Amino acid sequence: MWLFSRNKKIESIWTVCTLMAGDAIAFLIKITVKRPRPTDKLIPDAGYSFPSGHVFGTTILILLVIYLVIPYFKNQETQFLLCALAISWLAVLIFSRLYLRGHFASDTLGSVLLAASWWEVSQMLYLKYYDTVAGILNRLPLLQKKIRSKK
């Protein structure tokens, strides 16, 4: 919504698509691999272990924030601090998933690598189809005017 309110429609659509498709990919891998969770969990948790959905989703979110939000801050020290906070947040999340024994270390590392891979594919698609999506969005107001004029 923040991107959309700043008239960054393509970026907001890309953000939603990246998050939704990424979650779908992680889910499909989870039900395909079917790796059981550690047996000595501190807090009961259902489902399969790999990949960690929390780590995957947070990694994508942090990459989106670093790529789309942090550049709005002009001060390099502020940018560095925000990047460090975002990466620290991911590290704390990974540590919590391991501490609570909801995942194996390989689940969390694999989730970060899977999310980074999906991020690269998503960026490639964004760059490849940016002009196409921009053209469609630019024609939408014309289509809306034509629809209104027919009424």
UniProtKB/TrEMBL annotation:
The chain crosses the membrane at residues 12-33, 54-73, 79-100. It holds the Pfam family PAP2. The lineage of its organism: Bacteria, Bacillati, Bacillota, Bacilli, Lactobacillales. CDD domains: PAP2_like_2 (cd03392). InterPro entries: PAP2/HPO, PAP2/HPO_sf. Signal peptide: none annotated. It comes from Companilactobacillus baiquanensis. This is Phosphatase PAP2 family protein. Keywords: Membrane, Transmembrane, Transmembrane helix.
